[in-house]
Please model this.
Amino acid sequence: MYFIKIIRALYSLLCAFFYSLIYINKIKINPFHSKFIGAVFIKSGKIHIKNGFSARSGLFLNIDSGLLTIGNNVFINRNTSINCKKKITIGNNVIFGENVKVYDHDHDYKAGLTKIRTTFICKEINIGNNVWIGSNVTILKGVTIGSGAIISAGSIVYQDIPPNKLFIQKKSSELIDIYEK
Model:
């Protein structure tokens, strides 16, 4: 058991060092005060990860001209994906469940089919301190999640969540005509 813990610690240390070398001046993480296991892609932009960060396998950080800031003592569970084109801020003492997806942008479907792959609408995401995000949650652009909030598993967060509130998404099946002007 101790052997596995040592191997994981060494792997975490190597991951943090590796990405710090590959993305010099683009990623800031202290490998001795964080447990980083995952993949990073930075086209342009930056990542700042403070102390006490811990991630399980399957973490994917994709930064394309944005800024991702992760506070102190943040835990991210398996298979989480954070995609940043503008700005995503995650506060201190935040817990992510498994399979969480975070996008500060979406495709501009009004640009037409020929431009939809390269045209985006971007808005900042702010996640406060002491937030618990359940498994299989998707957080969409322009959202602020207040400190102390809890997001229930399986939710799609598309609106602001006030501090110290429990967000439970109710089932809805509303259809909107995308070509309506």
